[in-house]
User: What shape does this take?
Amino acid sequence: MRTKKIADTFVSRTELVLPNDTNTLGNLMGGKLLHWMDIITAISAQKCSNRIVVTVSVDFVEFKSPIKLGEVVILESKVTRCFTSSMEVKVDVWAENLQTEEKRKSNSAYYTFVAVDQSGNPIPVNQVEPESDEEKELYQSAMTRRELRMILSGRMQPSEAGNWRKIFGI
Ligand SMILES: CC(C)(COP(=O)(O)OP(=O)(O)OC[C@H]1O[C@@H](n2cnc3c(N)ncnc32)[C@H](O)[C@@H]1OP(=O)(O)O)[C@@H](O)C(=O)NCCC(=O)NCCS
Assistant: This one.
């Protein structure tokens, strides 16, 4: 197993919202955006693990403002932390209006991928080392998000979630 720089897992993608991507209000459909987010985050996870990866969970997706037909969508993703076979990947999305040059944050989300072998069984992944203050904060908080995911999916009892117990002082 290797230890990689988080910067080495960074991926950026730019898309133009075309008529087939929109609903009848001319807004980008959520499912289309989720598809782009799924692909870019999977590439980050593969750059980290050098393995086949599968999406196991997606959380904290919120669409703050509509993205309109003809606007540009910019997606950026990077691995925040690796566990045993799983990796958490953060994706940030911006919308840009090329007429007004207005660029606004649309949303961000955390995807969890699991590296699998040819039979689909989980296998250990490379680790990442955070360098910048932002990377260190995301690395640290990834454990708390993981615990929440484990609780919500029924894989962990709330009483076993050490980080949350610390937060609530219990
Ligand atoms: C991902 C998959 C291989 C995991 O299999 P599993 O039998 O649950 O394996 P394990 O219990 O050993 O868990 C493997 C890892 O997944 C993580 N995991 C499992 N369920 C999770 C969830 N709901 N959220 C976050 N992580 C999860 C575990 O924490 C573990 O991570 P770790 O090794 O880093 O500690 C299996 O669930 C699967 O194939 N899912 C379908 C994936 C898919 O088709 N994705 C596309 C969906 S459209």
User: Anything to note?
Assistant: The pocket of coenzyme A is lined by residues 54-57, 83-86, 112, 114, 116, 120, 122, 149, 153, 155 (CB under 6 Å). The chain has a mean pLDDT of 95. Strands lie at 3-5, 11-16, 52-59, 72-82, 86-96, 103-116, 127-129. The chain has one domain: 3-130.
